[in-house]
Fold this sequence. Notes:
The structure is a single chain. The chain is of the alpha+beta class. The protein has 2 domains: 16-82; 86-262, Thrombin, subunit H (Beta Barrel), CATH 2.40.10. The chain is built from 4 helices and 14 strands. Helix 2 packs across helix 3.
Amino acid sequence: MRHILAFIWKHNFFFLFLVLEILSIALLVNQSYYQRAVITNVTDRVTGRVFDSYSSVTGYFLLRKENERLASENAILWQRVKQGQLTTDTLSTLLVDTLNRQTYRYMVAKVISNSTNHRNNYIMLNKGKIHGIEPDMAVINPEGIVGTVVSVSENFSWVMSVLNKHSKVSARINRLNQMGTVLWQGSNPEIGSLTDIPVHVKVNQGDSIYTSGYSYIFPEAVMVGEVIEIKIKEGEHFYDIDFRWAADFNSLTYVYVIKNLYREEQVELSKQVIDE
């Protein structure tokens, strides 16, 4: 503090001049409309250039972050594609799953409407019938499952989010290979529930949950979430498991819509077995 005071005292004439200069400019601006307009115009230009430069810099870093996200998505998709045969065009990606003998077509769509604060949440996409979207297609993003297509128009489609009381997805705990059902209880959009896991198996916090593949809609091994709490009600034989969704439903932008090209054949065969 002593050094600061000494510096000010040493240069007191300069600081006095600076104060008087500021006071004179302030008096001039207040007394003259023309001078006030000129100074305001100059300061606006300077401020505008500063904000423009700031916007350009932040835009550059946001663009880089967006490019990193897209690169990450492409890497995830490419990793999936490496499991089988790839055929591509501008709208879709064809993935042949040699393990399950199922063929899936991946189509990119943009989320244009989304909710997370209702008991039954839905998502609207900017793709519809003319793009090959049909009901009962799976919807995912690079992080995990998102929902199922339930209604389609020519150019748009409605997706029933997994944040919906009517949504049920077959899933498994990866480490244990134990099958269960994924639900949403309707309270916290970040937390889902896994049911039908018997209490004789040892479930741990941090266990990963993936789709089981026992579905005509979702492919196998799509990330669902991570276990955060395991509860057992007295007299019950199954856990109540809470997990954190892998997907962030509040920040959905682009998603993949997945068509199982063998779904009709599988459904028809199942009907034959049930009828018998």
